[in-house]
Amino acid sequence: MTSASSPTSGPDPFGLNLFAFPPSRAPRLLNPLVLAYVGDAVYEVFIRQYVVSLTNHKPDHLHRLSTKYVSAKAQARALTRWLPLLTEEESDIVKRGRNAKSGTTAKNADVLEYRHSTAFECLIGYLYYCQRWERLRFLLDLALERDDV
User: Fold this and answer.
1) Which residues of 73-85 are buried (b: 16+ CB within 10 A; e: fewer)?
2) Residues carrying an active site annotation
3) Which of 52, 104, 142, 143 is the most buried (most CB within 10 A)?
4) What CA–CA distance (Å, rounded) separates 142 from 149?
5) Which residue has the higher pLDDT, 9 or 116?
6) Which own/partner contact pairs does 10-15 have at CB distance under 8 Å and 24+ positions apart?
């Protein structure tokens, strides 16, 4: 995989080669927990950039606001909003992520929320490695919509 755009991915919005270390195999062949591992990091950076774009930059406020988005419960809710909009391919990736046995449990979520949060991160990792920037951004923007606002 190269950093060049494919017809389905669009240009690299960052103008950088973020793929100096592409995955060892095609994204579809990666373990869903590996995709979730990367998706977790991508989502964390997205949320941190979002909260820094707001006006209150006190570290405690940034942290408390970020956790409202990155918790397993919030990610499971965001996935629920995504489900009707997913393609068949994306739904398959979500199912693989949801059914993956991680061997760990969430501190502040039940098993179903934790599985859905893993599925959420898995899809983000998949879209990231497939370089589907527009689709990834669309879904990430939807994740910013909170039920409690």
Assistant:
1) bbbbbbbeebeee
2) 40
3) 143
4) 13
5) 116
6) 10/132, 10/133, 10/134, 11/133, 12/131, 12/133, 13/133, 13/137
